[in-house]
Amino acid sequence: MIRNVLVFPHKPIAVVAVMVVVLCASGCGGGPTGSRLYRPISASEEAQLSRADRRVYPGDFRADSLSADTIVAWPGVITDIRTADYGGFLETTLLLEHRYFLWVEHWKGSPIPYTLSPRGEGTFETTWRLTRDAYERRLARFEGKGIGNLVIVYGRPRLDVEQRLVVDAAYIREIDRKQVRTDSVDFGRDTGQVEIRNK
């Protein structure tokens, strides 16, 4: 899996902490000491984390409330992958369904470290253009097995000529779907409540 990307808390720290406790109560096993806020895995990721606005969502962009310089960090589930060969380079487009992400990791007492809400704020996509060699090193692994994986995209959003929401990515990370739960907790920025769906 691709292991490069940034993720951020989308709620105030106090609310995220409450969600951590709720998840542990629903069966994380290791208790609060087994959970932590997401941590960057590289210096490059840490740099992106410091630049992105964790408060911005796709709905904010559609409402035209962002400046052109806004950098976002949007998690989404891959629904389709399209690759075109232009000879000198390959272009890969990931189609994504945005999901609210509980920005914590559960590594002790839980085989599934990441939790997504079943809800989000619609679809978006990101496109990468790479030489063939770079494609083989970085994106070929998406082909045939990336559908359903979590991808977090960092970059500047825009609308293309067909009015589709696109993020011009500076950094991405793919997390295997086997490491992600989508059925245990329902949450989002439109409500202060956290609903435990499956105990």
Structural account:
This protein is of the alpha+beta class and 199 residues long. The protein has four helices and twelve strands; from the N terminus they run αβααββββββαβββββ. Helices cover 19% and strands 35% of the residues. The relative contact order is 0.23. It is globular.
How do the strands and helices of this protein lay out in sequence?
Layout: H1 13-28, E1 35-37, H2 43-51, H3 58-62, E2 72-85, E3 90-98, E4 101-102, E5 104-106, E6 114-116, E7 123-130, H4 132-138, E8 150-159, E9 165-175, E10 180-181, E11 185-186, E12 195-196
Summarize this structure as a short list of keywords or feature phrases:
single chain; 199 residues; alpha+beta; five-stranded antiparallel sheet; three-stranded mixed sheet; 4 helices; 35% strand; globular
